[in-house]
User: What shape does this take?
Amino acid sequence: MAISAEDTEIREEDAEILMLQTFSEKFAKKLIQAEIIPESDADIYVFGCYQFGMMLLNIVTTIGLGILFRLFLPCVLLNLSFIPIRISAGGHHADSPVKCYVLSTLLIAALLAILKWVSVSLLAAWILILAASAVLLWLAPIETENNPLDETEVRVYRRRTRIVLGIELLAALLATLLHRNFLVTIIGFGLLTASFMLVVGACANLKQHWKRCV
Assistant: This one.
């Protein structure tokens, strides 16, 4: 579950901490020496390699947390309920890959801790789902300063958000009918997290708007 930093430039201090920048540069240099890519494209491949490394790090960390909490399958399902709608709906983006990684890790750990040690009733889970759905329908999609959306993109992403949300609502309904209340809770947490990121993103955009107006 990544709090996306996909549109963020690589910060030197982040790269040094994760030792990914050096590896990415060496990898790009090898490709240039092998005449696989032109030297003019080196920066693109360095950035791509760095982002791929961050993605792998997030996946490994997520799997590790699932095993640590002994909730591997719920951890996977939680990400499945969050990531697809997050991609379509947008919302807050961390301003560096390291912040993205740290916040994602803490968020997953907190949600897994709640799933493991807090009993959530079916009614409470559905309240979360309906409240989050209302926010998603109202706000999505939310753009960012580095990734503005034009009118066509807004329509496309809004439609995708509603499709994904509809699928998740049907899954929650089916889980309820099959008395899989734990699955309903997982879907509720995934949608709640996505809606929270929308609200934070909307507030950040509003703050930027006021700064420009003042």
